[in-house]
Specification:
Belongs to the EPSP synthase family. Pathway: Metabolic intermediate biosynthesis; chorismate biosynthesis; chorismate from D-erythrose 4-phosphate and phosphoenolpyruvate: step 6/7. It catalyses: 3-phosphoshikimate + phosphoenolpyruvate = 5-O-(1-carboxyvinyl)-3-phosphoshikimate + phosphate. There is one protein chain. This protein folds into two domains: 225 residues, Enolpyruvate transferase domain (UDP-n-acetylglucosamine1-carboxyvinyl-transferase, Chain); 192 residues, UDP-n-acetylglucosamine1-carboxyvinyl-transferase, Chain (Alpha-beta prism). The chain is of the alpha/beta class. The chain contains twelve helices and 23 strands. Bound molecules: shikimate-3-phosphate and phosphoenolpyruvate. The site of phosphoenolpyruvate has 8 residues, from helix 3.
Length: 421
């Protein structure tokens, strides 16, 4: 078995955490910069595997592009390779081949891309066979499956002869990620107008301008440290997270607001944000439509603090690295809580009966999902916990366990051998 055993801190909780930079911002900057002919200057690119895979595949001459488990890399590169007329086979992990992409491939086909689904219609692997512009510059696209399809289309839009008008249908999930895309495009000189009331985004045909861009630290990664502070029994806990800004392009900066009622105060400094403890509230309702990647962190934190948490907007979690709703339902039971579906596919509630179970250490399964591992790690602020397959964190936050070892004891168990980090 591969696992880490995390043991509660024995000294005051004070630390400065450097954080990885945002893989979402990095992967957008890389695609846009590729469309400038790789002429810009990108600073502080993420060390996340999803970004390192993007860097490698953008320049690889190999006809097969294996994105592993990186959703943005799959969706953004498919649009980029399609519109630049590159013949590529796009594939990924078995789970990636279960994550839908048909909405994007249909849109790209109507722009003029020749794309074949090699196994199942609407899913990777894909064969890209070139591009011949159809003359179509108006598309309708669903907004309620994945915003990554919309971001992928927006980023290639300035290179199309007539630009693009995207009309969004249905509910819009993960909207801050679309806004992040638009802001980064503008930074590179694109002319983009979004009319959210009319649900329409207009991109003019205009080449990107090469420039320099510095990527911010990752607010999604910051969320685990908020949970560490919320769960710390030490009233004087203080953690500073470096490289975060109050005005961020990342919608996951909402974690500062979500965690206030869970007992964490955020104070922005010149270098980042300082987290300290404040009184917590007994109940909280949150709609995660705009920030789905925060749901696991907050669910585990609420389970441990005994907060009555109502969650909405988590439907998209079912098509991410794993079915995160099912994974949470299974693993929360191991720490004495339940995620109950109150209104089918709409509203969920954390029911906490921690006192009913013995406080023995639990072994958390991670289902090839980095966020399962990192969301459960802060439990170690209160009791020993074991996390299986800890290497999954490399997808977004490779130094997570090293950073965690600044606060709790981290013991690696590899096939019967123990190492201390
Ligand atoms: O565009 C992005 O960088 C992302 C968008 C979100 O996906 P969905 O739009 O599929 O919700 C998010 O969950 C993912 O981690 C990163
Ligand atoms: C869902 C995620 O990533 P992606 O969709 O890019 O694989 C994530 O990082 O939580």
């Amino acid at each position: 078995m591969n696992a880490v055993r995390l043991t509660p801190p024995t000294r005051p909780v004070r630390a400065t955490i450097p954080l990885a930079s945002s893989k979402s911002e990095s992967n957008r900057a890389l695609i846009i910069n590729a469309l400038t002919g790789f002429a810009g200057d990108l600073k502080n690119l993420s060390t996340a595997r999803d970004t390192q895979t993007m860097i490698r595949l953008l320049k690889a001459e190999d006809p097969v592009a294996d994105v592993l488990d990186a959703g943005t890399t799959m969706r953004f590169l498919t649009a980029y390779f399609a519109v630049t007329g590159q013949r590529k086979t796009m594939t990924g992990t078995p789970r990636m081949c279960e994550r839908p992409i048909g909405i994007l491939t249909d849109a790209l086909r109507s722009l003029g891309a020749d794309i074949t689904h090699l196994n199942q219609d609407g899913y990777p692997p894909l064969q890209l066979n070139g591009f011949s512009y159809s003359g179509n510059n108006q598309l309708s696209i669903r907004g309620d499956v994945s915003s990554q399809y919309i971001s992928a289309l927006l980023m290639i839009a300035p290179t199309l002869p007539d630009g693009l008008v995207l009309n969004l249908t249905g509910a819009i999930g993960s909207r801050p990620y679309i806004e992040m895309t638009i802001e980064q495009m503008r930074h590179f000189g694109a002319d983009v107008t979004a009319d959210w009331g009319a649900r329409s985004i207009h991109v003019s045909p205009k080449p990107y301008i090469p420039t320099s861009y510095t990527i911010e630290s990752d607010w999604s990664g910051a969320s685990y440290w908020y949970s560490v502070v919320a769960l710390s029994p030490d009233a004087d806990t203080e953690i500073e997270l470096l490289g975060l800004k109050a005005r961020s392009l990342q919608g996951d900066s909402a974690i500062a607001d979500i965690m206030r009622p869970l007992g964490v105060e955020s104070t922005f400094t010149e270098t980042g944000v300082r987290l300290t403890k404040r009184p917590a509230q007994p109940a909280l309702s949150w709609d995660f439509t705009d920030c789905p990647d925060l749901a696991q962190t907050v669910a585990v934190c609420a389970a441990m603090t005994g907060t009555a948490l109502t969650l909405t907007g988590i439907e998209s979690l079912k098509i991410k690295e794993t079915d995160r709703v099912l994974a949470l339902q299974t693993e929360l039971q191991k720490i004495g809580a339940e995620l109950v579906e109150v209104i089918p596919n709409t509203e969920y509630r954390i029911t906490n009966h921690l006192s009913l179970i013995a406080h023995h250490s639990s072994l958390i399964t991670t289902y090839d999902d980095h966020r399962m591992a990192m969301a459960f790690a802060p439990v170690a602020m209160q009791r020993e916990i074991l996390i299986e397959e800890p290497g999954v964190v490399a997808k977004s936050y490779p130094s997570f366990w090293d950073d965690m070892a600044r606060i709790v004891r981290v013991e690696t168990i590899t096939d019967g051998t123990k190492h201390l980090a």
